[in-house]
Design goal:
alpha+beta, 3-stranded antiparallel β-sheet, about 35% helix
Length: about 170
């Protein structure tokens, strides 16, 4: 396994710790992120993956990026990776429910397991677990806190093309 390094970036929703090997981003963690692994050493000098991730996140926070292209290598079970792939298909400015994510992966009875995989997502924001809300429309837990989740959803709502927002509201 390739050695990992980390960097910290400031964002409108607080400090974000990024972890990557030289080939892929493995984690994006909040300061109080439960279950976050111990941080590897800080990156010394330029780091192609971390530098790309920071640049793309800055574009996202400026409302200029909707899709991330940084290479990813999240570590998790087969089921978790399946859920995370489904989360990645939720478009910018839209949201889904845990129930709809479970149905989309062909496991409609696995709502709690989907919620658990969502909570263990190591790539918050980039794998947009913040776009998953309760069936009743309420915001549920988020590793960065509900204030960060609320901010991210509002940020995307205000920067999404009108047709995307309309599609999300009609669900």
């Amino acid at each position: 396994m390739t050695a990992a390094a980390h960097t910290v970036m400031e964002s409108p929703v607080g400090s974000i710790r990024l972890v990557a090997t030289h080939t892929a981003l493995q984690g994006l963690y909040w300061p109080e992120h439960r279950g976050a692994p111990p941080m590897p050493p800080p990156a010394e000098g330029p780091h192609p993956v971390l530098d790309l991730a920071v640049a793309q996140l800055r574009e996202y926070f400026r409302g200029r990026r909707r899709i991330f292209s940084v290479p990813l290598d999240p570590q998790g079970t087969t089921f978790q990776r399946e859920v995370w792939r489904q989360l990645s298909s939720i478009a910018f400015g839209q949201h889904e429910t845990y129930t709809s994510v479970a149905a989309a992966i062909g496991r409609p009875a696995a709502v709690r397991a989907v919620a658990s995989a969502n909570a263990r997502n190591p790539l918050s924001i980039i794998v947009p677990c913040h776009r998953v809300i309760g069936r009743d429309g309420t915001l549920r837990g988020y590793a960065g806190g509900l204030d960060a989740k609320r901010w991210l959803l509002e940020h995307e709502r205000t920067h999404a093309p009108l047709s995307t927002v309309e599609a999300s509201c009609s669900r």
